[in-house]
TrEMBL record:
The lineage of its organism: Bacteria, Pseudomonadati, Pseudomonadota, Alphaproteobacteria, Geminicoccales. Coiled coil: none annotated. Residues 166-263 form the HTH araC/xylS-type domain. Keywords: Activator, DNA-binding, Plasmid, Repressor, Transcription, Transcription regulation. This is AraC family transcriptional regulator. It comes from Tistrella mobilis (strain KA081020-065).
Amino acid sequence: MCPSPRSAVSAVSVFDPDLTDRPAVASQLDFADHAEEVPVHRHRKGQLILARRGAVTCTADNDIWIVPPNCAVWIPGGMPHSARATANARLSYLFVEPGAALLPDSCCTLSLSPLVREMVDRLAQEPADYPADSHAARLARVTLDELAGMPRERFNLPISSHPKIRAIADALTLDPADRSTLGDWAKRVAMSERSLARLMIRETGLTFGRWRQQLHLIVALRTLAAGTAVQNVAVELGYESVNAFIAMFKKALGSTPAQYFAQRRRG
């Protein structure tokens, strides 16, 4: 049986941004036409990944980054990274030549203004080798100036390269409804509960409880952006009730899931 286009074609093979030395180039991808998993790769250019619909999860620099609608993750040039998009994802990419903009030298999630989102989409209509004195070149410069002022959001989960923390992260990523206590996990990884608590803080900067809540938030944002009902997300994450899940979400992001995504749709 021939593989479907979505399982056969990786987004990495569609566009090579390093073939041009322009300060910024953009492209768009609809993941209905491409493989869900984008394998580990790197670019000379920095990369901004913007979710216009659906969501994408990136792994880079020992962190998992969620990109909900109308947010973006910034990945500096040369950093290995991989991605996994929801089936309904429509993404915009902005690739930035090193030194062309005052952007962070580490990964971060940015909340983008409607102006920046529209400029990135407009630049995606231009050829990658646009003339240096063209309208596209001026658009690229203004886009980079505006992008440098966008605020950061905390949509990342530190996962560490330590084998025991990584084992816990891998297990809970596969089964986020697992409600095992820190003591349960300590037995599984052959450590005392006290030692594991110290290791978790040292490696991730978070207590185990805060780390698991951040994992739930990232899974929730990704799953809700894919169109899953709030009730189903609450069950997937192991909450006893929908209200308990909504309370966690509101405490973390300041609004209920319905309010949050309505605000995102309005820009």
